[in-house]
Amino acid sequence: MTSPAPSDTATTPRLISPDLADGGLAATFAMPDGTPAFAVRWHGGVHGYLNQCPHAGGPLDFEGQVLESSGRFLMCARHGAIFEPDTGKCVGGPCRGARLTPVTLREDAEGNVWLTE
């Protein structure tokens, strides 16, 4: 009898964060293809996006910080563009109307956040 083949790492869930705090620092990670991404908890929901500003393609975060000082919006540390945390829509700055690219995450009953792509 042969053992099953190992599952493809691109489809195996991967732990992103065991303790993502509401309104806290983002959990930064790399997608399976190496593209930088981040996850935030905002108003109890977990949201993930590629860590690329639609304005110039550079990362949004500065040392894991993506929420601006009021805690209401995600903000690009390089250009000041602001985004709705739950939709990724740019609502102010040089890329108004554009959107962050979402990443599919799931949260388990213990609060662990997993990448499922």
TrEMBL record:
Top-rank lineage group of the source organism:
Bacteria
Q: Which Gene3D superfamilies match?
A: Rieske [2Fe-2S] iron-sulphur domain
Protein's UniProt name: (2Fe-2S)-binding protein
The record's keywords, sorted A to Z, are:
2Fe-2S, Iron, Iron-sulfur, Metal-binding
Q: Which InterPro entries does this one have?
A: Rieske_2Fe-2S, Rieske_2Fe-2S_sf
- Ranges for domain Rieske come to 12-115
Originating organism: Variovorax paradoxus
Q: Does the UniProt entry include the keyword Metal-binding?
A: yes
Q: Under the GO molecular function aspect, what terms does this record hold?
A: 2 iron, 2 sulfur cluster binding; metal ion binding
